[in-house]
Amino acid sequence: MSSRRFAKVLPAFAGILPAAMFVAGCQGQMRDQISYRAQESPLPVPASAVAQNDEEVNLDYPMEVTGGPANPYGNPSKAILTLGKRKYEAQCGSCHGLGGNGNGAVGSALLIPPYNLQQPMYKAMSEGQWYLRITNGHPFGPGIEPIMPKYQKKLTIKERWALVSYVKRELIK
Ligand code: HEC
Question: Is a pLDDT exceeding 70 seen at residue 81?
Answer without folding.
Answer: yes
